[in-house]
Amino acid sequence: MKAFIKATALACVIIAYNNFYLAFRLDTNSDEAAESIIIELEKEEIKDEAAESIIIELEKEEIKDEAAESIIIELEKEETNSVESYDSVLYERQLHEALTPLPESQSKTGFYTKQFMAGLCNQYGRFVGTILLARTTNGFDQIINESINWKDTYGTDATILTSKLWDLVHWNSFYPMLPRFVRYEKETHKDLISAPSSFKIDGKNYTHPTVKYNVSEGHNIWNSSLSISPPPFGQFPNQGENQYRQLTTSINNGRAKYDRKLSLKMYETILKGALRPHPFLQAIVDQTASKFGGLNDEGYMVIHMRVEPDMNKQMNCGHKKVWYVDNITDMVYKQYPKPPVQTVLLVFARALIEAMEIDAKKSERGLSHHQKVNRHNLNEINDLLDNGMWGGKVKVVEAGSAIVEEAGNPFYKYYSNIAGGIVNFFLAIQSKILVGTEVSTWSTLSINTRFYRGIKENYFYRPEGLHWVTPPNVTKPHKFVC
Q: pLDDT per residue over 322-348, tens digit each?
C-alpha cells in the first residue's frame, strides 16, 4: 500500500512536467503561453519537495502494509452492518433488555414443547396458533424464547431460534396484547437446563442455545398437581395448528368477533405488523422494495408462480389451478394492458423446478407429462427474467435466497432458504400489486396480511382469469380451503 501511494505521488510530478513539455512543444512560438504554463506549474500543489514529504510521512506511519491488510481482512469477515440502517450492536443491546423476564408474580411464563415443521407459511400459521394457545388456553404472559424454534425445512433442515428470524424487540412492544418472549434464566426457571449445541459456518463458531426440562426420573411435567418452573404447554402435536384453523374458520363464518374476541384481536395485531423480520432481514426487504419501486416510486408487482412439480402433482383443488406460466402472464396483461409498475418480482422455488429438469435430461424413456410442463414453465420463467414484461418495458427479477446470500452475513447466508422465504414474503406484503393462487398457503397468508393492512390490489389467478380477492366491499380475509 505504501509503495503504491509513493509511486502515485511521484507519478503526479512526472505527469505535471510532461504536460508542461507537451504544451510548450505545441506552442513554441508563444513566449506568453510558455510563461503561463510555467506559472501554473509553480502553483501546483504537488512539487518534488511535496512528493518527497509525502513519502517520508508514509514511512513514519504506524499502520504499515501488513497492519492495513489485516484490518481489511477483518472487515471482510465482519458479519454485521453489511446492510445499511442495521446497527447490530445497538439491536443486540436492545434485544437483551427486551428479553429480560418480568417477575413471575406479575407475569406467568410458559415453555413450548413441540417443534415447527413444513414450509415457511405453514410454520407461520403454527406460530400464530401457538401464541393463541399460550395466551387464551394457558394464560401465559411470557414464553421462553429458546422453546420456540423454526425449521429451515428445504435448506439445512436445522432449527433456528425465533429471535434470529424475527424482531422480538418490536414484538415485545405489543405486550400485554401479545405474550412477551423472554430468555431462559437459570435462577428463575429452575426446572430447565441449558444444553447448547455448537456448529461452524465458514470456520466461525456459532451456538444454538437449546433449553430443555431437567426433572427427576418419573416426574411427569404434564401432571398439573406437580409444581414445574416454568410450566409447559403444547402437549399434543397439532394444538397450535388447530388453534389457527379454528380461528380462521370462525373468522370466515362471522363468529370470531363474538366467540373469539381476544384471539381475533391478537391475530389482527400480528398480521398488521407485530411480527416483522429480524432487523437484518427487514433492512434487506426495505432496500429491495425501494430499489424495485424506482426513483419515482412507481412500485412493483409480485407474482407467485406456484407451478413447481410438487403442486402440479397434487390433485386437490385441481379445478382452481393454472398450470402454465404464460397463461398466468396473459391474465396479467389482460388486467393491465399498460405497465402498472416498474418491476415484477417472480416468487417460485427454482431449485424444485431445476431438479425435475435435471432428472428429465437423464431420462432415457422420453419425457413424462409433468416433465414437459415443468420444462415449458422453466423456459418461460427464464425468458421473462431475460426479456422482461410488457415488451421489455418492465424488468422481471428473482429475489429471496439470492439477495440474502449477497447481503454478506454468513449466518443468514447459511440459512438462506428460510431467510429468503421471509424476505420474499414481506416483499409481497409491501408490493403495489400481488398476484397469487388460492391453492397456496403462501399466497393466501400474504394476501390476508395485506387485507388487514388496507392494501387492496390482490388477485388470485384462476383458469377463467384474474379474480380480485380484496375489493372495497370485502370485510373479511380469504379462507384457505385447499
A: 999 999 999 999 999 999 999 999 999
Four-CA torsion 379, 381, 383, 389, nearest 10 degrees: 150
pLDDT tens for 159-187 read 999 999 999 999 999 999 999 999 999 99
Amino acid at 304: H
The residue whose grid cell reads 431420462 is 363
User: DSSP code of 394?
Assistant: B
Pick from 442, 435, 407, 400: which is nearest to 421 by CA? 400
Would you say the pTM of this structure is higher than 0.85? no
Residue 38's alpha-carbon distances to 28, 32, 52, 481, in angstroms, are: 13, 10, 21, 85
Residue 409 amino acid letter: N
Q: Any idea which residue has 412439480 for its cell?
A: 309
Cell of 211: 433449553
Cell for 45?
500543489
Phi-psi region of 403 (alpha: psi -120 to 50; beta: other; left: phi over 0): alpha
Q: Position 273: which residue type?
A: G
Nearest to 40 by CA among 23, 57, 55, 27: 23
Residues 6+ apart with CB under 8 A from 406: none
83 pLDDT band (50/70/90 cuts)? Answer: low
Report the chain's C-alpha Rg in angstroms: 30
